[in-house]
């Protein structure tokens, strides 16, 4: 996992969009925005997932393949919807099984931070954080999605600052 400030240029969202010079963002800075990260080891992958699920009360899981083959005719519309700035009322938990992509989050200062994820990365975005997702130029990512309850993925596009989950999130990171 690599994280850095996003350059906000209008070219293809699948490009790295890294400022020049780069401004790295540490795991500790991500944690200050409520984002959690684990690097899972191949030899203990399933046991690590099971342990995290037990510790964090994740009861359900499924898999998604984000690719032209996996999504078929829906590919372009899905990629566009994933990249629209939004939040969820539940955590977004992804264990990357194959491929690479980017999660962009808004940090405490409302700046875009780009997080590059690859196989073995597990990331938790808190409920209420503004974020978006895109593939990189390889156009392929397979992920395990974890859920506290029944699988639900309802994006609420920005602005939704009055949403109670957004307000609770801002309070949790000491931004009022």
Automatic annotation (TrEMBL):
It comes from the Eukaryota. Its cofactor is Fe(2+); Ni(2+). Pathway: Amino-acid biosynthesis; L-methionine biosynthesis via salvage pathway; L-methionine from S-methyl-5-thio-alpha-D-ribose 1-phosphate: step 5/6. Keywords: Amino-acid biosynthesis, Cytoplasm, Dioxygenase, Iron, Metal-binding, Methionine biosynthesis, Nickel, Nucleus, Oxidoreductase. Binds either 1 Fe or Ni cation per monomer. Iron-binding promotes an acireductone dioxygenase reaction producing 2-keto-4-methylthiobutyrate, while nickel-binding promotes an acireductone dioxygenase reaction producing 3-(methylsulfanyl)propanoate. InterPro entries: ARD, ARD_euk, RmlC-like_jellyroll, RmlC_Cupin_sf. It catalyses: 1,2-dihydroxy-5-(methylsulfanyl)pent-1-en-3-one + O2 = 4-methylsulfanyl-2-oxobutanoate + formate + 2 H(+); 1,2-dihydroxy-5-(methylsulfanyl)pent-1-en-3-one + O2 = 3-(methylsulfanyl)propanoate + CO + formate + 2 H(+). Fe(2+) binds at residues 86, 88, 92, 131. One of its GO terms (molecular function) is iron ion binding. Its main location: cytoplasm. It is found in: Cytoplasm; Nucleus. Pfam families: ARD. Ni(2+) binds at residues 86, 88, 92, 131. It is an enzyme of class 1 (oxidoreductase). GO terms for cellular component: cytoplasm; nucleus. Its EC number is 1.13.11.54, 1.13.11.53. One of its GO terms (biological process) is L-methionine salvage from methylthioadenosine. The keyword Hydrolase does not apply. Catalyzes 2 different reactions between oxygen and the acireductone 1,2-dihydroxy-3-keto-5-methylthiopentene (DHK-MTPene) depending upon the metal bound in the active site. Fe-containing acireductone dioxygenase (Fe-ARD) produces formate and 2-keto-4-methylthiobutyrate (KMTB), the alpha-ketoacid precursor of methionine in the methionine recycle pathway. Ni-containing acireductone dioxygenase (Ni-ARD) produces methylthiopropionate, carbon monoxide and formate, and does not lie on the methionine recycle pathway. Belongs to the acireductone dioxygenase (ARD) family. This is Acireductone dioxygenase.
């Amino acid at each position: 996992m690599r994280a850095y400030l996003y350059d906000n240029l209008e070219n293809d969202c699948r490009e790295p969009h890294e400022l020049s010079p780069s401004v790295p963002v540490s795991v500790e800075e991500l944690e200050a925005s409520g984002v959690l990260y684990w690097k899972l080891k191949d030899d203990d992958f399933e046991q690590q997932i099971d342990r995290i699920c037990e510790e964090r009360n994740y009861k359900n899981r499924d898999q998604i393949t984000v690719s032209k083959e996996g999504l078929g005719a829906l590919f372009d519309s899905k990629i566009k919807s994933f990249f629209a700035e939004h939040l969820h009322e539940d955590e977004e938990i992804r264990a990357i099984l194959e491929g690479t992509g980017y999660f962009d989050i808004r940090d405490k200062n409302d700046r875009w931070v780009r997080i590059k994820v690859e196989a073995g990365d597990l990331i938790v975005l808190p409920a209420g954080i503004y974020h978006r997702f895109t593939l990189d130029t390889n156009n392929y990512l397979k992920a395990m999605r974890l859920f506290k309850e029944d699988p639900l993925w309802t994006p609420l596009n920005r602005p939704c600052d009055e949403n109670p989950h957004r307000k609770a999130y801002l309070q949790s990171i000491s931004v009022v």
